[in-house]
């Protein structure tokens, strides 16, 4: 039968590899990896160099700082402790984190893993470089720093995963790095590699890069993750490593690592968790992405000068992992993911798929103006004399803001006029007044009216 017109026919691997090379050049990405698991087989490919200064080539095993994808590993280790009976998902966080036993938030382990604990995002890494984990938790995870009541909504939190890492240390008696290595990485066959830790002789590590598309220049950057933040973002891994993690959560993975019912629990949407522009839903450690009638799980990860992505379909066992050593890798991923159906025969959700309802812009209202706080981050929404809204973050130049009748809002690029979905304002269910704003999945509570 002639299948030349069948759009679901997989593309030859060499054609996809050619496309990877071309997109890396087009987006000023020094090096990248792509791994696709489909039909029981994993195909891995790579392009470019791991360091633009040395010119050392990328390999399939090059370890890339994967940023927040580390949270998927941390959450999986917590779930393995649940499987062993050492932790219950509905235990209070303070039951396992001694630093939060008295002054910590009244949230559960489940809420921490799903970013529904109400914890602030967390401070800039440079500001906490000298803090121990205990000092970090006491300063940034106290009850008084909550941006919402636990379990009522979604607010992405690095600080929450610092607490999850401390839970792992308390329960296992090991450092977070040692626990992740022995409980998860070794069984997966992943060679451990961490930001800030001594390198592994047999494993190369990619250096992050900043690409300036206006000048055409790409320069190396350093990783600045604070030691206390390790559980939220310190892992380095390859695209095949990410595939191995995802397979541990599907029927194609190694048997006996994670009980199927707990893997399913991690992929189940948490009620009331609306991550806004980040994803279509959230489970326990995984973001959820809708593609037709199928819900994929995965996560995005950005370290200093790296952009990494994981998507997995638990029904077909298809997994796609992409790593790159440039901030411009995000644009490369968005273009590449849109073309992957030719290779996998299945459309891959590169970004959230939820259709945005036709939103009607509303007249600017003083209800939305004010100063909103998420930990150390200050968002200020102001209204001009002409009645237009603007958003400023930590005192930066304000950007125009368009609010809709459903309280979603778009940022407006001043140079192009293009609208960028930014987030949503949230009303207090008791009073009906706007008291919070969610931007990039992070909730901020109104502090002072302007």
TrEMBL record:
Give the start-end ranges of region Disordered. Answer: 195-221
Positions of the Beta-lactamase-related domain: 20-331
Per its UniProt entry, which superkingdom is the organism in? Bacteria
**Keywords assigned:** Hydrolase
SUPFAM superfamilies documented for this protein: beta-lactamase/transpeptidase-like (SSF56601)
Which GO molecular function annotations are given, in alphabetical order? hydrolase activity
Q: Please report the name of this protein according to its UniProt entry.
A: Class A beta-lactamase-related serine hydrolase
Q: Which organism is it from?
A: Streptomyces botrytidirepellens
